[in-house]
Amino acid sequence: MEVHVQPTTRSKMFCGCAVSQLGDPPNSRVCEICLGMPGTLPVINKAAVAACLKAALALNCEIPRHTKFDRKNYMYPDLPKGYQISQYDLPMSKNGFLELDGRRVRVRRVHLEEDTGKLIHAGDKLHKAWVSFVDLNRAGTPLMEIVSEPDLRSADEARDYAVALRTLLRTIGASEAEMEKGQLRAEPNISIRRAGSEELGVKTELKNINSFRALHRAILYEVVRQTEVLESGGTVVQETRGWSEAEGRTFSQRSKEFAEDYRYFPEPDLPPLEIDPAWVEELREALPELPGARRSRLISEYGIPSADAVLIAADRDLADLFEAAVAAGADAKPVANWIIGEVAPTGKIPTSEHLADLVKLVTSGSITRDQAQEVLVESVESGRSPSDIVAEHGFAQLSDESALMAEVEAVMEANPRAVEDYRAGKKQALGALMEELIKRAPQANRKIASDLLRRLLG
Ligand code: ZN
Ligand code: MN
User: What are the residue ranges of helices labelled H in 263-415?
Assistant: First the structure.
């Protein structure tokens, strides 16, 4: 898998242009350097080098002392210089790994390069008036290229790897890694082989993948396609294939016959880089706790199930929220449940104090789970504390015995069969009666109500 990730920097890779934001007018973030004018000279962006080294360290890579940039030559209208400054034989880092469900996915290298511009094809078919536009705002934007060894065995694993990579890069602050913004682009190389065979088959490379879901779908599609090609007696052609999200299929873009000879050679306008080992150590020491380590600590320190810890540690903000809410006095397990069940899926992120408050209201039986869901939404929207909201709405649960007693008696009267069944020894009839009770009185405190019911049933 090849993954291109945009490191978090203010300026471009080799010039002082600001990294372009969504909505910038076309060709407004350009200068003579990123436009590739003759006579201009690139300068290496130190923040991009630092981000790449941090990513490499978090991926357990070796950082060689010497590294250099190379020219990768090819002609395309989105590439103003006619070459991309990249790294060839002496990358910034190599031989790392990412731990995935206790298994190591080897990382061959993490290197730095620059992005290209963007082509926009427009026009109308009827009049055959086709026009192509070039926007070079993105040209020269820093990119880290992260290349794995062929250690991923399925679409699931490939997606999990990409997600884990995103989590890791966000955690260490090397990239925002938002796929929708094109800050993380995954290009899987797919090959299949017969069960038991060691030899990898001919591979195809997939492009135009814009989400983790698309990554998963594209790989599944390609595996089936290659299988069908081989089973019908054909051969898989080594090529680059595009993924069409709308059609749900891959299509041939470039085949090997036309594969470019990139004529790599050392970039003569940039000096080789000598990476100071003291700087590398500084960066290593400044790394925060990585997701894998945090997951283990969440399990051992808070006693939450490992499946919960995986989900929570995968998002630094959620993990911080979890620990802060527990520190604010709420029990760890229900806090984890609320984060996974409500906060993460709805995107309604409360403050840690408010989450702790909410969880305490539920665990003490003051409000029901259903009520708590409403309170959470309202708390996030208004910024008020769950306790205040509960007090104002009179949301408190029906815990008063005499009030509940009336409801319980009414339910027993309306369901004589179930009462008879229960008394005749069919204890499961209690569940049906409880259900009827909740329908009548949704605010009922479940525990007190079922105790009452049992008492009256004798
Ligand atoms: Zn520029
Ligand atoms: Mn690349």
Answer: 277-286, 291-302, 306-313, 316-327, 332-338, 344-346, 352-363, 369-382, 386-393, 401-414
